[in-house]
Design a protein that fits this description.
2 domains; Quinone Oxidoreductase, Chain A, domain 1; HCHO_DH_non_GSH; alpha/beta
């Protein structure tokens, strides 16, 4: 039997590279499926959502193979697959979707009704998302391949831009979805909460959509410096000055047209005394304060139904102290949920291939080996301004 290795969550704060089973064309229940393919993983990314599990902030079990951001080469094709062949290079949306249910047909692939017996929506290597094996590994199986996979039109051209194209599996469509649902368009003023990879992807997407001014806020000075270096305005939320005051200095107006939450449930409070105090609703409440009346707020940042690491009982159940009255009074529209990657990934692929978007530079892609993945997790958790991309087979080093 062929060998396989992957990144395995072993306990709070710890991942290991372990030998894992070589994938079969089976679903999580062990039933044979012929609509899937087996991929040789070319690149697979470490995501902030992975960090939530590794920090012990979910109910993820020890032994889970991590990884939902996958780009790979088709090695084996099930007999029901019609549009893909061995050797194709493909991007894998992090959503596992059947393409047949009502929500998939309506392009809401983040909440597929068929791939997870416990709730709507499936994903690779993620807690409560259907049991699909993660792709931070040498090989992985992808079901419903004809529907799920985005094939690159030219392998050589794709490999030349693989550091950018690897972002198509999650963070770039997620940032773009946040910008679209926030109503970003030509001439708009935009505030992005969070200068991590998804925040920078949202900022890059706002630029692609024609925003006039894009402001990124964070408490991490290194990440803020990187955001400035790639052309965005910034606000430092560790300062005593309020968010509205800092936005006013930039715009001459304390409110923006559009706001995007790219932080999620592990948000920290603002100001010197509160910057290290966890306050799960702090970002959402601040966005309602600085978004104009009738404005929209996109929320690609992750919120969970169960948070065993939360500091209070309500937050452990996913309940937040949200100022909904403020949002109601200002007639805000808030859009939540997992990104339906396939709604955007083909167009974003074209933007990359035709040099309209250099997302790898913006989010700070750094390619590492599979053996270096635990170190990458540690550096990312410490706030490095990087997007760590694992290359399990050295495919990028040969080019």
């Amino acid at each position: 039997m062929a060998e396989n290795r992957g990144v395995v969550y072993v306990g709070q704060g710890k991942v290991e590279i372990q030998s894992i089973l070589y994938p079969k064309l089976d679903n999580p229940a062990g039933k044979k499926i012929e609509h899937g393919v087996i991929l040789k993983v070319v690149t697979t990314n470490i995501c902030g959502s992975d960090q939530h599990m590794v920090r012990g902030r979910t109910t993820a079990p020890s032994g889970m193979v991590l990884g939902h951001e996958i780009t790979g080469e088709v090695l084996e094709v099930g007999k029901d697959v019609e549009t893909l062949k061995k050797g194709d290079l493909v991007s894998v949306p992090f959503n596992v979707a059947c393409g047949r249910c009502r929500t998939c047909k309506e392009q809401h692939t983040g909440v597929c009704l068929s791939v997870n017996p416990s709730r709507a929506g499936g994903a690779y290597g993620y807690v409560d998302m259907g049991g699909w094996i993660g792709g931070q590994a040498e090989y992985v199986m992808v079901p419903y391949a004809d529907f799920n996979l985005l094939r690159f039109p030219d392998n050589d051209k794709a490999m030349a831009k693989i550091a950018d194209l690897t972002c198509l599996s999650d963070i770039l469509p997620t940032g773009y979805h946040g910008a679209v649902t926030a109503g970003v368009g030509p001439g708009t003023t935009v505030y992005v909460a969070g200068a991590g990879p998804v925040g920078l992807a949202a900022a890059a997407s706002a630029r692609l959509l024609g925003a006039a001014v894009i402001i990124v806020g964070d408490v991490n000075p290194v990440r803020l410096a990187h955001a400035r270096s790639v052309g965005f305005e910034t606000v430092d939320l560790s300062l005593d000055a309020t968010l509205a005051d800092q936005i006013f200095v930039i715009l001459g107006d304390a409110e923006v047209d559009c706001a995007i939450d790219c932080v999620g449930f592990e948000a920290r409070g603002h100001g010197h005394d509160g910057s290290q105090v966890e306050a799960p609703a702090t970002v959402l409440n601040s966005l309602m304060e600085i978004t104009r009346a009738a404005g929209r707020i996109g929320i690609p940042g992750l919120y969970v139904t169960d948070d065993p690491g939360a500091h209070d009982a309500a937050a452990r159940r996913g309940s937040l102290s949200l100022r909904l009255g403020l949002g109601w009074a200002k007639s805000h529209s808030l859009h939540t949920g997992q990104t339906p990657v396939m709604k955007y990934n083909r167009q974003l692929m074209q933007a990359i291939l035709w040099d309209k978007l250099h997302i790898a530079d913006i989010v700070g892609v750094q390619i590492i080996s599979l053996d270096d993945a635990p170190q990458g997790y540690g550096e990312f958790d410490a706030g490095a301004p990087k997007k760590f991309v694992i290359d399990p087979h050295g495919a990028t080093r040969s080019r």
